[in-house]
Predict the 3D structure of the following.
Amino acid sequence: MQEYQAFWAWAEKQVYAANLNWSKVERMAGLSNGAISKRARYQERPTEDTCTAIAMALKLPKTILFQKAGIIESGPDGDTPSMKEILDYFASLSPAHQQDVIEHAKALYALERAATPYRVDHPPIRA
């Protein structure tokens, strides 16, 4: 099935970049030997279990894989891939960490608005 070729190509790159292989991903997820690798080899539709296993192995939110596999729809038209990724990670955080992300984003925005370089060398903070 060529319609899933892009998903499998992307997933395989991610798995190998994480220094894993399909057998390791299957073991980590408690799936039978070949449960994922057979689907990848024959370019079959990835299942929710397959996507969940890959996400767990790669430490990614499973919604990223569900979207790439076509199991769930992507966000609104016009969203960039990086924005979708940020939102997926953000949704996985605790409320306290979500607030930290918001504060960090505000600080970065203020730096850019003030035309201040993104990275500034500061002396070490002494406690």
